[in-house]
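Hi there,

I know you've been waiting on this one. I reran it after we fixed the sequence typo, so this is the corrected version. Both the input and the resulting structure follow.
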Amino acid sequence: MSIQNQTKLNIGLFGFGVVGEGLYKVLAHTPTLNAQIKHICIKHQDKHRNAPAELFTTNASELLNDKEINVIIELIDDADAAYRIVTKALRSKKAVVSANKKLIAEHIEELIALQQEYDTPFLYEAACCASIPVIRNLEEYYDNDLLQGLSGIVNGSTNYILTKVFREKKSFDDALLQAQVEGFAESNPALDIEGIDAVNKLSILLVHAYGIISSPQALLHTGIQNLQASDAVFAKEKGYEIKLVAQARKLSDGKVAALVLLQFVKNDSQLYTVNNEYNGVVIESSLADKQFFYGKGAGGFPTASAVLSDLSALRYNYRYEYKKLHYQEPSELSTDFYLKVCISFKGLLLVPHERFDRVLEWSSNEQRCHVTGIVHYSELANNDWWKQPNVSLILYPDGILDNYKPQKVHETAEEEFVEQFI
């Protein structure tokens, strides 16, 4: 589909939640875009909404079969329904803008194929980091061979909760409730808290950064659900903050390490001062060194700003070219590297010490034990001992170890480790 600059954007909008309403308000004050919402499809007709009643319908076909509608914007939280909407729209040669990271992460290969088959743009800047234009920058600016890595706080909800709990001393439940009231958290908070939203976003970013198509389930990840107050104390003693960080790093063998884990962040890192619902992404290239993108990563207007940017891009027929996937040799994910981590737990038996390649440091008090050591990626990817409710795992700064030489813990070290906690 080709949308020329003079063509009016007639929009069919799915969803009128925080982001949908934000977009509606923004469009009313952006006449230069030459765009209007013709219909809005919602679930519940009887709910009061701040827009004229004649705009709303519960019948998706009214939007998808309307020949005057040339753009579908999908802003619902049901990934299965979103899949049906987006694929039907693309097959109908309607341009699509989406913010549904779960849909995109789980179906990216098929969605790329549909774009090519029907010559129709599908844009989704709002699916990653809301107001930060990270996808388009990865797509247009960074050559795959020069991109050394990216790391970022990509989930505004978990970052908001961590800020409220550890800086403002709120309870976890109160912080979560406040995040939901503010419109930062997903309707299903487990998607945020368990790191699912973040790993979905990382899966999308990998396509544009390295040409890697990977199921989110194949990427090592966790959330903030097992983090303890004592972990924050431990971090503070070492001069760190704790953040949930999604990252990908090119290793010396050319493959890419990718994961989402809690991480200690040093005070000289750009991510150290990213708080509340803000997101921050550091992109590192061999020529430009580190570049930092910062902005609000949740909320109606910040996310709507990314949707608005995609709408504006449609005016000049912009579409993702997936250059790293189609015009270069795509990178591969690595499963053969080591990580420097801190494991926090109650009771020695919760953490089998033989899982470590090397134990570097341990400490304990009446509340908690902390063990710093080196583990192989596959040890965490293939086992779930570190995901038990009373165990938290935190990656150290620069904790992805390239060219580490294995030094399996010898018997004396194992005995000392055990004796420390008996």
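Quick highlight: Residues 101-118 form the longest helix (18 residues).

Best,
R. S.
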